[in-house]
# Entry
Amino acid sequence: MSSPTPTNNTNLPKRLADFPTLPEALDYAAQGETGFNFYSSRGELKHALSFADLSAEARSVAKNLCGGGVVPGDRVALLAETAPAFLIAFFACQYAGAIPVPMPTPVAFGRRDAYIGQIRNQITSSGAAMVITPTEFMPFVNEATDGLNLLMVGSLDDLKILPQADGNKAGGPDDLCYLQYSSGSTRFPKGVAVSHRNLMVNCAAMNAAVNVSPDDRGVSWLPFYHDMGLVGFMLGCLTSQTTVDYLPTEDFARRPLTWLRILSENKGTMSYGPSFGYELCSRRFGSASATAPDLDLSSWRVAGIGGEMIKPLVMEGFADVFRPYGFADTAFNASYGLAECVLGVSFSTPGRGMLLDHISKQELGDNHRAVPVDNDSSGTGRTFVVCGRVIPGHTVEIRDDDGQSLAEREIGRVFFSGESVMQGYYGDQEATDACLQDGWLDTGDLGYFLDDELVIVGRSKDMMIVNGRNYWPQDIEWTVERMDSMRSGDAAAFTLEKDDGNEQPTILVQCRPSDVDVRSALTAEVRARVQDQVGLACDVILVPPRTLPKTSSGKLARGKAKASFLSGEIQPLAAGV
Amino acid sequence: MSAEPSDGASQDVRAVVLEVLQTFNKTGVTLGDGTRFTEDLNFDSLLVMEFIAALEDRLDISVPLNVLPDVETVGQLVVATEQIVREEHG
# Structure
């Protein structure tokens, strides 16, 4: 078996994303020896794909795309497995001027229909002309594309059999580079449309924010259908010619410690994950009552945390377990970002570690102010992680409900502007207009400033993040409202923050029957349906009819429903359990 | 080789699946062929992977991702696992 690509290029000077377009970034990286390596769940190297090989293969496959009828601007949906075939197809699209659309792979028991519905929605929403998938997922993709008029549905090998043709041209800086669907709900997908310029500006800013050097090496288990995996550890590293070692997400979930072993073995310096990824490692390490005398994490310079609300206790737990193996607390780097801004919005200074801010719960709730309190056990404070400075060349404003800019330590909506802001949601002007005005993106998140640094106190008012996966309340409510005894507007889904920092998915359901047995059957049925179709275990709480508040246009006022429930204005019905 | 329930090898696989699964049974339901992973056992995607890893270790097999969407019950997992064991160990 070959060896992994090296950390350093021998002759090629490091360039940090100063390219007009992504294909030009790959052409430059292809002049060196660095590249992408793929590991198995047991930490064995399966494939080493140098940027040179990636570029050559992708250029060849680009001709098959052209020969197969794909023209510049066409969308090509790709099932995003962590394997060379995905990267080759992604960059073939780049050279052919087509727009790749990474789609998720299945990850749970059952839910076949839900998965097929999800990818069909993404394929139709993006208007994909072609779908490329690993052979083993072909049955799902065939079902998902039934009746659609596509140029081809097949594997990379199937694509390579198509005749080759020249003529397609790679996109320019203002053409779209890819669509990213992780931020939309499964039923109502929204494809974040990113141009080459958006991408390159954000990659340059991220590379600068974490001081990427020629000695850096990435290690990643993040999926390519998620912005942190796709941009952070595929495109971002490629634009700085940085070698990355990949562990497929499903293998990480099975054997999380393999992540750390690869990093140790290859002297990795940069790796990111949501809090739960770190938690999985410390939990598994503890339960295995394992020792790992060879594990050496001292090379780990940037241990990035993002993607969901950061849980300080979880991170401290990780550091406690792995400090004996060379892990440095100062490596923790809290960051904030979202796909609508390509990826990164703010980063902590590398080498500082986590900075915490303890503020008054009461002031947070009553006056939307972040008033410092002592970090004691009295329960009057909440602890937040400071997420660093906004990337260079970009601006963040904290605004109140009337759009007025707020001062330091005042809590409001986070607005972002700069060249990283997406072009919009693909083919969805209404959704674009709802969050993007005059060059300012309304992130929907809540936060405040502390000495030039951003602190996030709550993610998007709608999106629910559980164990690093995004869920949308609309999907959950829709699932419930389709039940025979339910009507539109009968359900409100949101998460309730627990004292341990975890978020509990909760659904309020308007219930007409008064019979206690009927009620408990209804509770069980709602729970089972949401579990089956959305894949989420929710607390189901029955409430009286006509108690869920509506907006003036008749839509569910979800935030108000949650507030009224918390204040006791909406009282649960006796559940009869 | 058939996958009849009376088959000796399949009895073994079934026993191992149930034994490993019991350590992940947090809802306390009685495990049987009809037990559903999401509805009855509250498996989320993390727990699914943790359970699969344990099963793989016990049987020295590799469970491909594409079997997951078609597996809703314990009985279906037993059948799928038997097939993987046959393919990988003859």
